[in-house]
Specification:
By secondary structure, the chain is of the alpha+beta class. It contains two helices and nine strands. This is WbuC family cupin fold metalloprotein.
Length: about 160
Amino acid sequence: MKVINETLLNETTERAKQSPRLRMNYNFHERLDDPVNRLLNALEPGTYLRPHRHLNPEKDEIFLLLRGRVAVFLFDNEGKITETQILDPKEGVYGAEIKAGTWHGLLVLESGSVIYEIKEGPFAPLAPENFAPWSPAPEDTEGVEKYMKRLGKEA
């Protein structure tokens, strides 16, 4: 039995805090080519999750916030925010399901945030066309900082 408990959340969060990207996965699936990928994703404020979509291959994405506070954004093809939802288990808002091909992104609002994510396998790194062309690339640190501040005002 694989158990999700406070110790596992804390250990994964500590690894996220040590990571230059301020996030860390803990995979429950044993192989990347498993038909269903299941993982914890510990996220710290300041991590940049570039807006993206899961198209080619088409994959729905489902995640539950186990602790913390995260803003989820949906975008149109030009990058305009079409929907915002704050996930906060303390407020009774636990997760989201994002349909394949929908531009989306997250902004972490609280340290110690951990989501449980479920996606159809096998794992495939996102192809360049699945990253939003209207969003800054991760290496554009100044652009990323401005973009995340803008999202923070919308959260």
